[in-house]
Amino acid sequence: MLCRTHVILAWVWRKEFIFLKKVGTEFSGSILKMWELIQKVNV
């Protein structure tokens, strides 16, 4: 019972982690673009 629950939790967590990693990559990419724009405006 406990093992099965643990496996399901691990699988769900892995899926969530992959999703979060993808979102995080896109998010940091847009932050970098924003930062570049701010740098251009400042210069």
What does this structure look like?
- The protein has 43 residues and is mostly helical.
- The protein has one domain.
- The chain is 95% helix and 0% strand.
- It has one helix at residues 2-42.
- It is rod-shaped, with a radius of gyration of 18 Å.
Give the biggest beta sheet: none
Number of helices: 1
Strand portion, in percent? under 5%
Q: Return the domain count.
A: 1
Radius of gyration: 18 Å
**Could you say which structural class the secondary elements and strand pairing correspond to?**
mainly alpha
Features:
single chain, 43 residues, mainly alpha
Sequence-ordered SSE layout with sheet pairings:
Elements: H1 2-42
Q: In a nutshell, what does this entry contain?
A:
With 43 residues, this protein is an all-alpha fold. It has 1 helix and no strands.
